[in-house]
## 1
Amino acid sequence: MSAGINHYKTDLRELFFTLFEQFGFEQVAGQAPFEAWGPDEAKAVLQETYRFSKEVLGPLNSSADREGCRVENGTVLTPKGFKEAWKLLWEQGFKTVGVAADHGGQGSPMMLQVAVEEMLCGANAAFNMYPGLTFGAAELLSECGTADQKKKFVEKLLNGTWGGTMCLTEPHAGSDVGAAKTSARRNPDGTYNIRGTKIFISAGDHDLAENIIHLVLARVEGAAPGTKGLSLFIVPKLRVSADGSSGAANDVALGSIEHKMGINGSATCVINFGENDSCLGELVGGVEHIGMSQMFKMMNGARIAVGIQGLGLASAAYFNALEYAKDRKQGGHFTKWKDPTSPRVPIIQHPDVRRMLLEMKSHVEGIRALIVKLAMHTDKAKQLQGKDDDRAAYHRGQVEVLTPLVKAYGSDQAFRLCAQAIQVYGGAGFIKDYPVEQYCRDSKIFSIYEGTNHIQAMDLVGRKLGMAGGAHFQQFMEDVGGFVEANREHKTFGTEVKALAAAQEGLMSSAMVILGWSQDPAKVSLIPLSANRFLQMMSEVAVGWLLLDAAVLAEKSLEGLSATDPDRTFYEGKKWSALWYARNVLPNVEQAARMMVQEDASPMQIPDAAFAASL
């Protein structure tokens, strides 16, 4: 395996706090269906994942970025070391920590699974695309496939024998999936002939697995236009024999690979299906015209996974910037900046560098809390189903409203924070000797794929706010309000909790503004114009709440510690993350609410020609 340099680092103490102290892993673990799990088992998995991330995946990150993927004889060859890493990843069970035991997994709570994924993504985002797509395909088939399909495909996807993909995008149909032209023609034996071209297919072809199982959206001949007429098909690269073995080629051809801004170790492919009219697929679940609802089983998980990708790279960028700032000496202390004889100090002593680092720290910790909060809701919904259906519905509803926040806010902030890490380094950050420029390039795609972040915002304001008659959003607001009322007079954080209350009020008033627009045809265009702003507002309220919640817990823990206890500095850090965010970010929510009521429609009012008169 390549002997590259590992740059990946994280803080396991922070992961332990978020899982075990803030979100009560012990309240979920130890009970069905997670009865085999407890804090000791979870900590061992996190420690082993961190070892694997540093020793195996981290050293391949920059070398794979430089080498990229290449095509030989119609097949993608992945960067050096990826084959060995793929084998070890599946053998050691890192991708199946949260998979049910009846599918060969370890059946952990999702809370642990997302922490594992953060490290795998942070160490090598490009590599983790391959098993990530495979895992998503297996998850979809385990939920939507027929008994025969589950038996034939899921096990081999979940042990790394086969890889998997999701194939939606076409040259003329990106976010407008309903415009897809890939066709499916019924055959007498129940199979379908698939014909069409899909683009931007992550992990679309590679040399890591024996076979690749494509999940392809296509329109059966005669089906209705738009998304309602789409069906989902299992289309292997190599045909799968009755005994489950890979057989002859299935008329699935690699068209090309994209040369991208980032994640260069991940093969993003153009795939041609049925150029010779001999590409066979089978219908997922045996039912036509429900392809979009089936694909969304994979898409929703993928959107959460993108937020985790963003967190992984933002966290890695933060810790690298912090390490550099402690080591790099430049300039005198700010109190003696006019004294040319003043000794040089580490740049972490400069106020602006400290500001940037604390901004990164607070966002990384807050986004991590948001993701683990979503995972906790998922785990509790699973445990309560059939026992307390009302509470299970509450938890599922919170997953619904938090998913677009995790995907969009996590990915938007990842790119911004990675760019900020470059700024901490100064000129050194712009060169490839250090990892942060790669983190920045790699992270840009996160706000684009699995539904652009505007799609997430429209999903939030157009669908999630009104789900269950608005109950899910209202319950989110009640959860925030409960924290506010319990801590409004807190001796340390009272002022900041009041700032959270003001932000919450601004968010609620903005939700009512959007509701009013939706009922006025003359103002309906204001909804897409303001959707991204509203999603950011809600994300900032959620993150501010969770950071303050962590700070309150940290202060309680500090009360029982001696002056020399090493945990004192950790808990102090949690307090300052919350204070900075509450003082510097939460006031933006109030300002955004004031901007919403101004009803600025200038982007719709400017004539096309006025954008640039000469074009």
## 2
Amino acid sequence: MSNLHPAVERVTDRIIERSRKGRTAYLALMAEEGERHKDRNTSLPCSNLAHGFAAAEEDKASIATRAGPNIGIISAYNDTISAHQPYGAYPPRLKIYAREAGATAQVAGATPAMCDGVTQGADGMELSLFSRDVIALAAGVGLSHNMYDAVALLGICDKIVPGLLMGSLRFGWLPAMFIPSGPMASGLANKEKQRVRQLYAEGKVGRAELLESESKSYHSPGTCTFYGTANSNQMMMELMGLHMPGAAFVQPGTQLRQELDRAAMHRLSAITCDGNDYRPLSACVDEKAIVNAAVGLLATGGSTNHAIHIPAVARAAGIIIDWSDMAELSHAVPLLARVYPNGSGDVNHFHAAGGIGFVIRELVAAGLAHKDILTVGGYDLGDYAREPWLDNGQLEWRDIDGSGDADMLRPAADPFQADGGMRLVEGNLGRACFKTSAVDKSRWTIEAPCRVFSDQKAVADAFTAGELDRDVVVVMRFQGPRANGMPELHALTPPLGVLQDKGYKVALVTDGRMSGASGKVPAAIHCSPEALADKDGNSGPLSLLQDGDLVRLCATTGTLSTTADLSARTPATAPPAASGTGREIFAMFRVGADEAEKGGSAMLAAAGL
């Protein structure tokens, strides 16, 4: 496109050149596999094929004779994750929608899906990041039957979308589409929820009051409504063209949601290799689509978790993107949205104000997103700059006039801030990510003595004892992928927020993750290299810090450093790997994990990707 912003063009060209070898090998493999598996009636022996449709009931004849496309459904349904609970009812409906289009559908497999909201601050959080590899592997197992002409992916939340995408990309000769179920209705006002959390952290309200508040916030089927990792996933699938246009934030149980689901199955039926509009996933997820995902993340102040997920997804498609690429994009991409925790309204308010369609329209018009990508749901990304609606019960798309709420959504010509919501900080303490979009600019620079921890409970105890009532940089180390699976450290947010509200200069530096809901406290996260020594015995610099060392964190200059002389110090001893809650059986993932900037994946590292 002729009006592409120079920085977007420069970064895209750099990624293309850097990825040339891996991308060429990936596409060659997909072409070979696509040719080998394009006709299951010849590639599968009769006995194998009969096993595959033995329980298909009324669809048996169609699958046996390949009368129409057979769509494999990979579902992350469970009842514990509110966003995925609606998926329990999806397979029977999706099969009906497929038959309407002359196709069939089978549940090819199910993947685990954990809720980080349930495991925050608990032992299970140490399984969270590696659940992404497990999900990718589970999707691969489901698709390995080679019974399918396209894939319907039922997944929404934190590790589920990246994991499903990573697994499906290794079957990238198949077209694939995500079918979201939508967000729950808005509950308790976000500011009130945050107020009660901080009161609880200060001991001013009890558990009963806190639970009542949380239950009013997370109250029904559907995605949690704050703009965390799950809803950032939905944004990225739109920017990459892997949804039906505008499908992300339409609520469950509505007629519009049902019609979008129907349209998804009809569309999947039309883009297989048997038709004249073949759109394999391997062609859709290219370098431009990956850049679009990063641009959308920055433009909307999305979850910091995607600084890990985007590189991992890209690697599964033979593409290499790093934090320097994302930082350069961040300097060019303006912040167009403020959605809680970066603003007061949630994703329902965001959607009503114009939502992702408005954001895409603005990004494409400003040359900040690649319009010319191959999408599954339309001609190009321009089709995603509109919103779905029902015209006398029929699904249609219409143009979006403008922002319906300037406090939440602004045009590229008048953004909330001139650059995106994420910065790269680096220095003698390593490389890390700093999410600036939720942090007041007066707090972008913090310089203070550090207090070093390796356990979240120890931070809470020190806070309760008043030991942190001062200017302080809290260093939380041995939280990287190899140490303990790189858990989110969301439990640190309330006490650090209290200290900040008291007027202290406070920051967090960690080789762990923060939640996609991380907010107002400045934080350098995903610190790489991590504190725990790698296979060659090299420890990250966080392992050398001691209480009282002066640490400087500055988003403006991109600095993460200490004035302490680390050269003569001996690395601190890491806590032993914990057991219980299944953590011991995830040891192979910890041993094999690569660094955060590459995606923190053991699966991709083992595959040599």
## 3
Amino acid sequence: MEFRILGTVEVATSSGVTIRIGGPKVRTLLAVLLLRANTSIRTDRLVDVIWDGHPPRSAMSTVHAYVSRLRSRLAAAGADGADRIVTDAQGYRIRVAPHELDAESFRQHVDRARAVRDEGAAAAAGEEFDAALRLWRGPALADISAGFVHPHAASLNEKRAEVMEERLAIALDTGQPELVAELRKMVLVYPTRERLTGLLMLALYRAGRPAEALRAFQAICRRFREELGMTPGRELQTLHQQILTDTVAPPKPAGVPLAADRNLPPDLVDFTGRTEQVHRLTKRLTDTGTATAVYSITGMAGVGKTALAIHVAHLVADRYPDGQLFLDLRAHRTDSGAIRPDAALETLLLMIGVPRQAVPDTLELRAALWRTQMAHRRAMVVLDDAASLAQIESLLPGNKDCVVLVTSRHQLSGLATTDTVPVEPLSLDGATHLFTTIVGRNREIPAEDEIRDTASLCSCVPLAVRAAADRFVSRPAWSVGDLNRWLADTWVVRSETVSRDVRTGSALAGSFHLLDEALRDLLVSLVAYPDSTFDVDSAAAWVGMPTEKTSRRLEALVDRSMLESPHYGTYRFNALVWAYAYGQAVAVRRTA
């Protein structure tokens, strides 16, 4: 069954036949349920939305009648249609699989397009953007007038416009055929979108029409001045200046295939410590066996798992001449979320040269093609920031001559690893050396005692040490004592500092916000415990929870690298995790 809101609201059978839904109120009911797909909506809320806050006295019974009518229409669309709308204690909800709702399919195509574009596959990204835009049949929710729907429709229409811009930018940047006419039409529809005007200017310039490009700039300047009382942004003004001075960059060569089977990120020039882990991994990577070797590298956010994996991969790259592939699985990216296995497989297949049109549609077929393509290769695959076994299981090649390095903040239960290498914070000497190395490239190296204090305040976590060193370098008037006072002013300031720092804060935020609610609550509750170390009984008593349940949750937090367990049954915070959790506790109290 297909549910469509990218245009008028429609339902179609699996064979593509559109079914009649009913009058405006029934279509509004369906639209509201689809906007909150798989989530219950109270009946009184439906009444308020359908009648825009002015319901008749019979509204409650009328809603029930509308639901019954909608169920009967859906029953005509498929065998389970009558069961799609579920009644529960909270109200009504509609059951919809992600691939059945056009808005969700649109999002998935866009996510895939942006992922492969970021990997350098412009042609594949263009195809995904085209597939996303083909789902649109007009303005979103075009036949629904209810006020509740307006902001949702506006948001969807805005996303469509953004994707149109991104698709046209790819077409223009790769030197695809004449785009001026299409861009002129788009600028008429969206006269204040600066990026569209910039693309039109670029297309005109590259078509040998610089005077028209300059007139397009003058037109938007005039429009902004008369309608908004402002001038266009810096990016558009820079392009205008480049056209005036004939310094616009040429387009990228069209049709350049993605060649990413050697796409390891560069090794860190200041990689520090990890001697034991590096020796352990490089030695094991020389061994041969009867199955694909899988090595799991685990640890908390910012501890250096990715740096270790990349460092080792470079050291042994010559042993894997048929490819060294790197893929960020984005388990803890709060902006886009983890890459799904099917999208990850598509990216890997494109990396090794499989044409986009030859990539199968289903996860199973993509996994089979991936294993077939890797069957005769001696290659290394680095899967960074994995969320779970389910995310990576289908990404493992079946060839014993291949090796896989997986980094994760979780213990990947069920993964048959050749070896699991835990990564902990650096030693005090290692963290001090890292700080000295970074600072020494830019300014005089301070006294070692002060640097050791800095390393301790950063809990010897490499990401935090790097952030502190970068801040010190960017503050030439500061002494290390100033930096240390800034780091250790108070726990409250420190927790906010962790949250503000782009690298450390976002890394910890990703780990924290992917915990389920019960684990987050336990972590936040434990920050107020009066001792730095606690056992299960003490923690259970502190939070008022049964010992067995507390034990399970403490172990789950250890598995996710949010707590440390120095001895059996004993737990403690890493200081940076404590500081971040403390900040969350403060935020909760402020909003309570």
## 4
Amino acid sequence: MDTVYDAIIVGGGPAGLSAAIYMARARFHVLVIEKEKMGGQITITSEVVNYPGIFHTSGEKLTSEMIRQAKAFGAEFLSADVTGLELEGDYKTVHTSRGDFKALGIIYAGGAHPRLAGFTGETEFRGHGVAYCATCDGEFFTGRTIFVIGGGYAAVEEGLFLTKYGKKIIMVIRGDDFSIDSAAVEELKEHPQVTILYHTQVEKVEGDSAVRRVVLKDRKTGEETVYTADDGDFYGVFVFVGYAPENGLLQGKVDLNPQGYVITDRDQKTNIDGVYAAGDICVKNLRQVVTAVSDGAVAATSLEKYLGSQYRKLHMKRTYVKKIEPKEEPKAEAAKAEEGAFLDDDTRGALKPVLDRFEKPITLRLYKDDSELSYEDEKLLKELASLSDKVSYEMKNAEPGLEHTISIVRNDGTEAGLYFHGVPGGHEFNSFILAMYNTAGPGQDIGEDNEKRIAAIQDKKDVTIAVSLSCTMCPDLVAAAERIAAASDKVTVHVYDLAHYPDLQNKYNIMSVPCLIVNDKDIHFGKKGVAELLDILG
């Protein structure tokens, strides 16, 4: 008989990770399946200050510790796209892009995704004035008038953040007041740059290559107000109107409320025995990390009781998963950083074991010019090479289009088709290290299906990705594109730090990152995983 898990958890956000920690700590055989990035949407949040007991952290750090904790207790993790669920009967089946998996119980923690506001022009101007992440895109609207749509937690927090960039922030709220009551609301109301319009909605946005005209409608009187930008000016429109549940796999299988959220009892149980739900996918009043992890813990402990009854019913003998005792990893010995070094001692220590896994030598080639960027790149490459005998670096005079550009070169001397224009710092540093890892091997495991799809690419694909080093969503797209390029001679990836390439920004009128351009014409915005990117590449 094939392996049957005690529990399969669909979704690797805080709710799913919390459930995994509780299930694995009870020594059940647990598999967590996530289609995108383990950690969920909170990983794009750079500042978390309201999680009890953690004074200040980022979403990435918080969830990475949850993952480490779950693995230490013996939980297994799989990166795959769940394509179907069979939930009736004693054994549940989860169909994925990497095969089928069976379990006695399921915890569904698929979460929710940002909801579109639905006004005319929203899709057309996405990335050209309409945005959904203030951290990623706020800087593009420095000195402009910015409309913020929504009256909840996200809208208030992001509205305050955008006061750092916009000369004027216009809050557009459908109701008669904000939907929350907090000190942040009062701060927003008292801010001199902020205007608040209640019982108002955006009817449409218009323009050419950017948003030049915004039409608002008073929901009580029906009166429309038109904002028209001065010559050469444009607007930013940031949408924060809540989330839509990721319920496609559940429709027709478990009970949902009219808004599409899963109905559960106090034990997080759905209407189907052995099937539980946790996190933002559920009917609830507050969608925050703290409530997600609570849901996960409740779902896990409830499922534990169900599993006990199933073992007795099916006359099965339970096997206990061996706990992986956490132990202190020996600190990697890396050369200490000199004063003014690009990499500090902690970063060097973290990089050393990663670089030691490289299977083949690679060379980091810098197309050098006389710019400050080239000087910083040279420092970085020199320091990386000092950490591993598998990494070397070389200088080459810049060629047109390759000024202050790093290229990763394979062991046979050929360029891997992975280029970074600028200095890969900030959030892009990790994706740059991943590009090195994927070129040197063993590389990230992306599943047999994706490997076959990469091998099937026949036509040349020139991929340009515009990023901001402060963007928390950009690295996912960069890592996916570079993983594909590392495995295919047909795909070339050029990553640009948009702060240093205004001509690129103007050419494609980029007002949101990440921006993906395929073969100089096909433009997409937002983060993408390997499978999604392969869909685009055909």
